[in-house]
Amino acid sequence: MSTAAPRYLQIIVNQLYADVSQGSVRYNIATKADIAIIATAANGSKMTKNYRANYSIEGAFQASNQNIADAVNSVLTDTIADMSQDTSIHDFIKQNAR
């Protein structure tokens, strides 16, 4: 990051995982996403915003790689949707750009 930049953002993926448990006739996939955005203004002011989401799904027999990928994509999509609706980072950057 350049010190000449008026502001910058860091996006940190703290956790993104799927916990899969399987029985003889059923599976459960529990996913979690924890993402932080750190905004730093030219004047040194910082704002950290955390976004978290959980998602779980059950199904019959065994979980496939596609089932797991779909569950992870769902929790990540939910987290990104929350981030896109939150204006606090935008407002912070706007207030500190002067």
Query: What is the number of independent domains?
Result: 1
Beta-strand content estimate: over 45%
Give the helix/strand class: alpha+beta
Let me know the average pLDDT: 90
Share of helical residues? 25-40%
Indicate the overall shape: rod-shaped
- The largest sheet has its strands arranged as 1-2-3
What is the ordering of alpha helices and beta strands? Answer: EEEHH
Tell me how many strands there are.
Answer: 3
Account of the 3D structure:
This protein is 31% helix and 48% strand. It is of the alpha+beta class. Mean pLDDT is 90; it is low at 1-5. It comes from Salmonella enterica subsp. enterica serovar Wandsworth str. A4-580.
